[in-house]
Amino acid sequence: MRQMKWMALAISVSCLSLAGCSSNTGSSTNNTTHASNPTAMADLKNHVQAMQQTASQLTSVVNAKDTANASELAAKLYNQEWPSFENSVKSNYPLDYANVEKYLSPLFSAAKANPVAWSQVDTLNQGLQQALDQLLSDVEHKTPATTSANSTALAAAAQQYHDYVLQQSELLVTHTQAFVQAVEAGDMAKAESLYGPARVYYERIEPIAEDFGDLDPKIDARANDVPANQWGGFHELEQAIWVKHSLAGQATVAKQLLANVQTLQRKIESLTVQPGDVIAGAVDLLNEAATSKITGEEERYSHIDLLDLVANVDGSEKAFDAIQPIVQATDPSLAETVAQRFKTVENTMNKYKSGNGYVLYNKLTAQDTRTISEELNSAAEALSKTAKILS
Question: What are the structural domains, with CATH classification, of the chain?
């Protein structure tokens, strides 16, 4: 769950007439070539430049150590400006999308920390500005990734990834149903044992789920991500199990969780995945693991964050598997590098296996989390380079 961006999506009144932007917040099904649409290109440039201006203001605020304005400007970037056009960037400029996402989410978290992590905010904001500069350059000088000599292979890769996501969503429904039944029966031990397995299937397809407006926060919001009277889903039940040690009154929450998961599965059935969504989703999952899961914030009550993290990596690797033949044919060295870095992450995570899962997050050392994060970032960096081949 990428915190509060859904709120901006829900209230935005300026849906761009660009690829991937429609009344449906799902993935793009009608890529529009900006190079042949001057109005669309101008709109996109305006949005990028607005973010550049806000990021520049944030630099001044960081230098002044102005806590209130740092949090406000980071929230403006993350919750207002980027959500208004990110789907268009995701579909047409997947590499740029991944680069912006890599800096924006941790920047938002660092700016709202108490105390503010000023050095981290400064470094991330500089990275964000560089990513925005590159995005603007690509919009001005390049045709988005909508055409390719490998168009048939790309379509096949997109379909392969869609089939995987659909399969995982079906398994998500099955495992969530079993979890919900345990909650409804008041069986604490069974609910605790079934919580983690259900989470795995959601975390493998998280970027796709996040495309459906407020459906993601209904399923995956953490406490304080949404107003208290709107909180529900997996994490309210997690809190009931590991903190309150009581399932009393949770049957309604559980039933709504299952209904939302079933809705997600139906939406994925009819979703058209674009080639750009595959690589953007793959990099997004690694960024999510490296910047969110590794902090221990996601599963703050059960501490099963490593289970989520590995599921993120699994989903990312499946996306790469879909495009791997195309990358192999074009740049065998890059294909080998990406595969090797996934293997490195896998080998590292195997060290933390414990029973049917992984050691709890609160048992990790600072060096453990640093090593895992560095390896995830290394894999994401290599994976992001495949976007140039796919365009």
Answer: 5-141 (1.20.120), 153-390 (1.20.1420.20)
